[in-house]
Amino acid sequence: MTGKHGKIAVMKSAVAVAVALSAWGFIANPMSVRAQSADAVLCDRLAADPTDPDKPADVKGVAAIATPDIATAIKYCKTASKASRRTMFELGRAYAANQQFAEAAAAYRGAADKGSTAAMVELGLLLQSGTGVAANPDQARSLFERAAAAGNPRGATSLVALSGSGGLPSDPAEARGMLQKAAEANSAEAQFQLGIMYAEGTGGPKDDVAARALFEKAAAQGHAQALDWAGNFAENGRGGPANKDAAKSYYQQAAALGNDDAKEALERLKCPYVVKDKRGKVVSTICF
To answer: Residue 212 to residues 59, 193, 195, 196, 242: CA-CA distances in angstroms?
Structure first.
């Protein structure tokens, strides 16, 4: 069909195709899909952080970049980093995995400047420790505060940890509030730290029931220290009924993750009975 009516029909057809592609999650230009592409896809696959709020839902992420994948991750993330803050952050992770901390800091800074809260946290940690950059606790705090204010759970936990590095946080009640939000976002570290605050009555009322629940939530995510604390609460009946079997299970899981306190607790469970003399001095133990 030619002429005015033919052109209108072609335009309508093009619009219909564009709408269909949009409904399926594609953009109108398939070339730009491919360009966005392989570099970004491979960068995500090798270097995405599971906790990065920018991470697409269909990208699993890796807790640590596998050593054989580091060079490949740097290669593809370096190209992909020109297009997004997420892949720029992932480039920083790849550099850090390769012990190139100055380069990692530069990549994190670029991503943080573009609004990546995950990059803010990682750059803050480098500034806190002086790794790859001059140590600057004030800048680290500022970055953690920005990340926490934007809702990043690791920003909140890092800020609380920084505040408490020389003792209790300057405002324990505020710290408890920040950790509460991060814990609700299912951050295992926040759940653990908040559990300690409840267990010790820091920043608010002491609450062993709430502490135990938080330790168990973090333990379910494989947090080694939370597993040890959950075991202790179960062993001693804090915040709920005593359960020696549950305590042993928690301790075993924590010990498998390298927690020394849990290893000692398991040895203690083997010898639960202590024999003392009249003066209260331990003279023997009964083990099973």
So the answer is: 32, 12, 7, 9, 12
Over residues 11-40, the pLDDT tens digits come to 444 334 333 333 333 333 444 344 457 999
One-letter amino acid identity for 228?
A: D
- Vertex 149 angle, CA 85 and 214, to 5°: 105
Alpha carbon 134 to chain centroid, angstroms:
25
* 3 state DSSP class of 266: helix
Confidence (pTM): 0.69
- 10 Å Cβ neighbour count for 115? 12
Closest to 78 in 3D by CA, of 87, 70, 69 = 87
Give CA–CA dist 241/35, Å, rounded: 58
Residue 93: partners with Cβ closer than 8 Å, 6 or more residues away: 47, 49, 65, 73, 104, 122
